[in-house]
């Protein structure tokens, strides 16, 4: 179908929503990004994982969590006995925000306005999928889902029920594990994230 027919009203399915999001202009991040990286997974998913925003590799691939953070996420999800293919994986912000540094593009954190603008899409993804639980991977996702700042390292492993009844499970962002240098600390954090993913499985 021609792009012009696909307004944001065409939001009755995840596929329609994804097509509409391709031409999103709700915030300026579309200008420098390669493409919109929409959520991925079946509309029948029982759980939605929400990250922060696509990274360099996600921006190029057009798919969420396919870079380094996605790799560790995949492995630990699998260890927890969760089949990623049956889950829906998305981000609070759907365009890559970066600072050019030489040939590299360095991730830069989306601001409150960008998160707020992109909530329009996240709300609709949740509304269509109606999951048992939504997992906030890190502070940006928690902020978007709960509308307030959440201390994720303190609150991790907990479920917060929203006024609309949606259960939001709080945990860290998988890239937090990647940033830990000391091997023993990294292993410990990996273990905590695995426990969190097992807890998520029990909520599905
Ligand atoms: N980090 C995120 O928050 N989301 C992605 O899709 C990839 C990395």
UniProtKB/TrEMBL annotation:
Q: Which SMART domains match?
A: UDG, UreE_C
| Matching Pfam families | UDG
GO molecular function per UniProt: 4 iron, 4 sulfur cluster binding; deaminated base DNA N-glycosylase activity; metal ion binding
GO:BP terms for this protein? DNA repair
Coiled-coil regions listed in the entry: none
Q: Where is the Uracil-DNA glycosylase-like domain?
A: 38-198
| SUPFAM superfamilies tied to this protein | Uracil-DNA glycosylase-like
- Give the record's keywords alphabetically: 4Fe-4S, DNA damage, DNA repair, Hydrolase, Iron, Iron-sulfur, Metal-binding
> NCBIfam families under this entry?
UDG_fam4, UDG_fam_dom
Family statement drawn from the similarity comment of this UniProt entry: Belongs to the uracil-DNA glycosylase (UDG) superfamily. Type 4 (UDGa) family.
PANTHER family, sorted:
TYPE-4 URACIL-DNA GLYCOSYLASE (PTHR33693:SF9), TYPE-5 URACIL-DNA GLYCOSYLASE (PTHR33693)
Write down what this protein is called: Type-4 uracil-DNA glycosylase
Q: Source species, please? A: Mesorhizobium waimense
